[in-house]
Amino acid sequence: MNKLVCIVGMCGAGKSVLADALVEKGYEFIRFGQITLDEVKRRGEEPSEALEKEIREGFRKEHGMAAFAILNMPKFDAGMKKGNVVGDGLYSWSEYKVLREKYGENMIVVAIATPPELRYQRLEARVSGADDPDLRNRGFSRDEAKARDKAEIENIEKGGPIAMADYTITNEGTLEEYQSKVQEFIQKLEADEIQVAK
Predict the structure, then answer these.
(1) Which residues contact 183 (CB under 8 A, 6 or more apart)?
(2) Could you list the residue range(s) of the whole structural domain that residue 156 is in?
(3) Could you report the per-residue pLDDT of 151-184, keeping only the tens digit for each?
């Protein structure tokens, strides 16, 4: 069976860089949080941390804490029939448990670990605009990023999947150093050398 590689990490950790590298290797890209941004667009409103939080929490109120896993499962299933899939942005412990139960050893969870101060600097330096129509690499102010961190840790159990990841990549140096670590992970992935929690 094909693989589902789920990426976990706090905002600004470097998840998109890993996802893009896997896409280059032929993985289909599915972003967990895209359903939130799709809802923002459907409402015809401008994205903001407050609005996105309201929508995320609304989905979880309706579908439970595993909402984003449940809502994205049809996409994962369809993608895995064709090949390997990268799921960018696994959030909650409940999502992790639902996906692990369904996909077992065919799901590999990789965490990106980056210190908060470095993430905040990177997020403040990002510039959103026309070159980012899917809002994948949006900038956040330091206060917005801190508020998002707090909400994700306290309200949506984000620490669990990070702690239980099958593989962790640290991202606290240059982009080139991080990209080298990403390629090392991909080599191990392709060689089936990643030990998956059973």
Answers:
(1) 21
(2) 4-190
(3) 788 877 888 999 999 999 999 999 999 999 999 9
